[in-house]
Amino acid sequence: MMTVREKILTALLQRPDVTQAALDAAVARHRTEGIPLSEALIRHGLIDEKELLILLVRELRIPSIDLRHFKPDEKLKDLVPERIARQYQIVPLASLGDGVTVALSDPFNVFAVDDLRDLTGKRIDVVMGAASQIREALDKLYHVGGQSTVAEVSKNMDMGDFEIVSEAREEDGQDTDSSGEAPIIRMVNLLIKEALRQRASDIHLEPTEGQMRVRYRVDGVLQDILEIPRESQGAVIVRIKIMARIDITTTQIPQDGRFKMRVSAKEVDFRVSILPTSFGPKVVMRVLDKANLSVGLEHLGFSPRAVEIMNEYMHKPYGMVLVTGPTGSGKSTTLYSIISKLNTVDRNIITVEDPVEYLVEGLTQIEVRADIGLTFAAGLRSILRQSPDIVMVGEIRDNETADIAIKASLTGQLVLSTLHTNDASGALTRLVDMDVEPFLVASSLLLVCAQRLARKICPHCKEQVEIPPEALKRLDGHLDLNMKFYEGRGCDRCRQTGYLGRFGLTELLVVDDTVREMLLAGRSSDDIKKYARDGQGMRTLWDDALARLAQGQVTVAEVLRVAAEDEA
């Protein structure tokens, strides 16, 4: 009598589009990589998920279920631990009497049911489900990328080495632990510590009609974490305000503050922004880990060639270096990394920022306050009287700031700043559009770095995949389409996203004599970009993204998401 496996393979072999060689290749992959046979068959394109489910149900005579319309029972989490459920890709559906009904997608895993029977002490009844639906149902049940309770977030967390580093004076009359009962203090501390554990860059607390939603931004993408009851919302806001030295009596206007926390002997800065909304104050806490600034440009994910060029120009005695890109592309982190490397006792470094992000020892840092007339231009004009060696301007927003910054770079200072343009060549024409004389731009500018942040494939669940033909059409002519493509399958390390961490994509335009002549002649940014590619060998953002794709560092989807607008 044939086994179930043999029946399935025989049935597949009878299909006109399936060959014995293809079937052998899928079976070999199943054995060598340790993935389920059903998954190997799907990846090799021998059958799709829906057809396989129908085939399994027919051969095994086991009922199937559409998990898209299924709402998991929260009580079953205690019966089947998440580790076991994910290991065997089993979703507990119901428990009645001495039996437990579960859905699974891999009927060839004979150990799953036996282990579950031993674990629960109950009879196990099985139904079939699609693998993708099972993964989604597990995420719903165990709250991966979704909501979970504060108690669940706080599991296995040691709070003994977690404290506020208070810089307040006792006479201020605001005790850091006076915001309410200890549970509120613990709740806020746990939210922050969990954000650090998940490598979040921002913590969002957003009031809604019935509760306060908490989301973390991880690798540039927001993820739902939990909901705080509405009755606790006010106490949580007050606690955060006290930590950040913000006036707790003011509620109708936007407020900003900052605080520092020590976690396991490591200090982390937080910048707090509070905005009044219809349902109460919305809080965003930006996580500022200064350890990221001292790792060097190469550890920010820049290519070796980009690091070499930037190291050359950031040591120039005078001139201007610009970093461009949209909001959230890592411009400030790049500038701070450069400043940290240049921050030596023999240099006077002054920054003017809105707001000051990282507090760095050895720097003179000025925060813009437009309400009292301290603008970028006013601050920059003043600091030039302080005999600086290096000046960092947080952002060039207007003609006055641009004009002063450029003239400063011509009179003996190295000026670092950011500008909102899509590519490197666009920065030159943007400055001219700000009514800065072209000859000043040509004389002062040394280097323009355009950058983006792309998510890295999780190394713990990275696997080779087949890319749909419609996606490959965008790459035709740019890459060898027979190369290997990779994606992250999703694991506990990356919270089932397939991505873990980010790296910088860069486009470096060196302002040489030819670029200066083109600028003075009024040539367009497209002309300058074409020359930089052909004459300097400049690698555009699109070129850099494709190179990372060829190296297996990034997915096709991420390349198209981040760099497609710069496609040449």
Strand coverage percent: 15-25%
Mean pLDDT: 81
Cα-to-Cα separation, first versus last residue: 60 Å
Shape: flat
Q: What is the number of helical segments per DSSP (H or I, 4+ residues)?
A: 21
Low-confidence stretches: 145-161, 167-181
The count of strands amounts to: 19
Task: Tell me what the structure shows.
- The structure is a single chain.
- The protein is an alpha/beta fold.
- The chain is 36% helix and 24% strand.
- It contains 21 helices and 19 strands.
- It has helices spanning 4-13, 20-33, 37-43, 49-60, 82-88, 110-120, 131-142, 150-153, 182-197, 230-243, 304-313, 331-342, 376-383, 399-409, 425-433, 438-444, 469-473, 513-520, 525-536, 541-550, 556-563; strands at 90-96, 99-104, 123-128, 162-165, 200-207, 211-218, 221-229, 255-263, 266-277, 280-288, 319-324, 349-353, 364-367, 390-393, 414-419, 445-457, 462-465, 485-488, 499-510.
- The strands form four sheets. The protein has a seven-stranded antiparallel β-sheet, with helices on one face.
- Helix 2 crosses helix 3 (37-43), helix 16 (438-444) runs antiparallel to helix 18 (513-520) and helix 20 (541-550) runs antiparallel to helix 21 (556-563).
- The longest helix is centred in the middle third of the chain and has 16 residues, at 182-197.
- The model is unreliable at 145-161 and 167-181 (pLDDT under 50).
